[in-house]
Amino acid sequence: MKRIYLDASVVNVRLFGQEKEAERYAHVVRLFEAIDEGEVVAIVSIYTLQEICIFCRDCLAVKEPEKVAWLALRELFQHELRIVPLLSRVQKIMHSRTFEMRDASDQPHAICAYLHGCDVIVAYDEHFQDVAERILYLQPEELLVELEQFTDAFMV
Predict the structure, then answer these.
(1) C-alpha span between 31 and 67 (Å, rounded)
(2) What's the predicted TM-score (pTM) here?
(3) CATH assignment of 3-155?
(4) Does residue 154 surpass a pLDDT of 70?
(5) Does the chain have fewer CB atoms within 10 Å around its N or its C terminus?
(6) Is 81 helix (H, G, I), strand (E, B) or coil?
């Protein structure tokens, strides 16, 4: 079974993008359905959870961003996700040169995905192309096409 790493750029679309990113939102909802149906194993890290909280604080015009973040995390945890911890200092040092990226904030995501055996990073962040030779990067709609092709081939 394919193991996928969900970046915050996808999770935030699922949690907050219904109106402003309707097309992406539809793809991400289908991806979460595939996750909940056991078609893929989905991993998120504490880094992703932190980015959800930062998004609520910095991007939403609400009085209580902490409460919105809590509600968002509660919604997220209703799905069949596996949570992985922050990287240790040693892991960061050991893998930082292997996963060099233009956006240093994406590096821990790539390392986590690699260390937890993910086949693909699912994101709307082109910076993951920097490490595509080490771990595949797909947008949700691209992964959905792959899953459909696999299902179609299996059914024949």
Answers:
(1) 26
(2) 0.93
(3) 3.40.50.1010
(4) no
(5) C
(6) strand
- Say if CB 137 and CB 120 are below 8 A apart: yes
pLDDT tens digits, residue range 10-63? 999 999 999 999 999 999 999 999 999 999 999 999 999 999 999 999 999 999
Identity at 145, one-letter amino acid code: V
Cα separations in angstroms, 21 against 12, 24, 45, 133:
10, 6, 23, 29
- Domain ranges across the chain: 3-155
The amino acid occupying position 102 is R
Sole residue written with tokens 């992406």 = 24
Identify the CA nearest to 111 among candidates 146, 86, 129: 86
Q: What token pair was written down for 93?
A: 């040092």
Q: Is 89 exposed, middle or buried (0-12, 13-18, 19+ CB in 10 A)?
A: exposed
